[in-house]
Amino acid sequence: MTQDAVNVSQLQEFDEIVDVRSPSEYALDHIPGARNCPVLDDAERARVGTLYVQESAFSAKRIGAALVARNIARHLENAFADKPKSWRPLVYCWRGGQRSAAMTIVLRQTGWDARRLAGGYKAFRRQVTLDIDEMAGRMSFKVICGLTGSGKSALLRELHKRGAQVLDLEQAAAHRGSVLGSLPGDTQPAQKMLDSRIWDTLRRFEASRPVYVEAESRKIGKLRVPPSLIDAMRTSSCILLDTVSPARVSLLLREYAHFTQNPSSLICKLESLERLHGKVTIEKWASLAASGDWSAFVLDLLQDHYDPAYRKSTEANYPGLERATRLVATEATEAEFSALANELIERETDEAGVRGCAGILT
Question: Would you tell me which CATH number, out of the four given (3.40.250.10, 3.20.20.70, 3.60.20.10, 1.20.1440.60), belongs to the domain 5-126?
Answer without folding.
Answer: 3.40.250.10
